[in-house]
């Protein structure tokens, strides 16, 4: 309902000003603090490259030191005709959600056509940077990797099973998993998230998300259920354990698609071999293989066969990673 209101009142040539936007958010019971644009511009050194933390599908993120000396992450949405819709959508979805494994919205800002969201800062960047982006200077040990898997599972379980209406994130990938100073993982970037009031899911003709992480039923049918996020989570697990990206053009042909490689190793009875080599020297192969089987269970082609995230949390925290799988159901 809120989306229809936003599109009707603010899309196209509708007038845009701060009071109207605040009133619209208030109708959705969303009242985030509003920052002054001048404060955020100064805090990010005029949105300088030096302060840039990264770029996502909807905007760039900057580190900012506010006047009270606190540090935050400032997300400046790209200036497109839909930026106002994206801004309101993310504000509506995130405001009021409080969970240690979900990044917290601190406030927002509007100046002319600029739309800004202010979040808590994740001091260790995102998971993609930790796995691939620091020139080898960062190595996540096994305990850290398992902890990240658990944290993300807990965040998704909260979105899917504890919130009403539940929220489908739709863009789970390493860039949208942030790491704080203690390496706790937090799910971020709710620009594509959807409220879901029906248990059976919904369909869309517009496929969005990050290629390589979207589920087959979403691509072929536009079907949106929480199992879409479960699939994306399975891909991320493979990346965390292997240290490889979901699609690696530099890899041998049989390892080009991470998921296909994992399935082939599973059929050959040596799934553990896909783990990052440094892990193989310190972690028992059966422990690695158990977590990889958990990942594969999340990737089953029939979305109804994938586990609920609450079940994943129970098995991860109970150190029992194995799940029954229909091996005929994997994508080949």
UniProtKB/TrEMBL annotation:
Entries under PANTHER family matching the protein: CYSTEINE-RICH RECEPTOR-LIKE PROTEIN KINASE 3 (PTHR47973)
Signal peptide: none
UniProt cross-references to Gene3D superfamilies, sorted A to Z: Phosphorylase Kinase, domain 1 (3.30.200.20), Transferase(Phosphotransferase) domain 1 (1.10.510.10)
Name of a matching Pfam family: PK_Tyr_Ser-Thr
UniProt xrefs under PROSITE patterns: PROTEIN_KINASE_ATP, PROTEIN_KINASE_DOM
UniProt keyword terms in alphabetical order: ATP-binding, Kinase, Nucleotide-binding, Transferase
Gene Ontology molecular-function annotations: ATP binding; kinase activity
CDD domains: STKc_IRAK (cd14066)
Identification of the protein by name: Protein kinase domain-containing protein
InterPro entries: CR_Ser/Thr_kinase (IPR052059), Kinase-like_dom_sf (IPR011009), Prot_kinase_dom (IPR000719), Protein_kinase_ATP_BS (IPR017441), Ser-Thr/Tyr_kinase_cat_dom (IPR001245)
Residue ranges of the TM segments: none
Binding of ATP, residues: 75
Superkingdom field: Eukaryota
Domain Protein kinase, residue spans: 47-322
Organism from which the protein derives: Riccia sorocarpa
């Amino acid at each position: 309902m809120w989306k229809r209101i936003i599109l009707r009142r603010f899309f196209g040539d509708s007038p845009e000003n701060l009071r109207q936007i605040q009133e619209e958010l208030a109708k959705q019971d969303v009242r985030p603090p509003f920052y002054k644009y001048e404060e955020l511009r100064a805090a990010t050194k005029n949105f300088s490259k030096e302060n840039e933390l990264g770029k996502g599908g909807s905007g760039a993120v900057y580190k900012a030191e506010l006047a009270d000396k606190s540090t935050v992450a400032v997300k400046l949405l790209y200036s497109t005709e839909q930026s106002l819709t994206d801004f309101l959508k993310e504000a509506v979805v995130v405001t009021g959600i409080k969970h240690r494994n979900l990044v917290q919205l601190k406030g927002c800002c509007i100046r002319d056509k600029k739309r800004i969201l202010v979040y808590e800062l994740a001091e260790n960047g995102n998971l993609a940077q930790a796995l691939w982006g620091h020139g080898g200077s960062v190595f996540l040990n096994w305990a850290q990797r398992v902890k990240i898997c658990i944290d993300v599972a807990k965040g998704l379980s909260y979105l899917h099973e504890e919130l009403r209406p539940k929220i489908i994130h739709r863009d789970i990938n390493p860039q949208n998993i942030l790491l704080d100073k203690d390496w706790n993982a937090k799910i971020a970037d709710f620009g594509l998230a959807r409220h879901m009031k029906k248990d059976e899911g919904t369909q869309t003709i517009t496929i969005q998300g990050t290629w390589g992480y979207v589920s087959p039923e979403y691509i072929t049918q536009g079907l949106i259920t929480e199992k879409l996020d479960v699939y994306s989570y399975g891909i991320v697990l493979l990346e965390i354990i292997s240290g490889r990206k979901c699609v690696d053009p530099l890899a041998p042909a049989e390892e080009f698609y991470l998921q296909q490689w994992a399935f082939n190793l599973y059929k050959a009875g040596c799934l553990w071999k896909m783990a990052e080599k440094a892990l193989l020297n310190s972690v028992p192969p059966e422990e690695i293989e158990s977590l990889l089987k958990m990942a594969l269970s999340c990737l089953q082609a029939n979305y109804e066969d994938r586990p609920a995230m609450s079940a994943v949390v129970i098995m991860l925290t109970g150190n029992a990673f194995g799940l029954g799988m229909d091996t005929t159901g994997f994508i080949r």
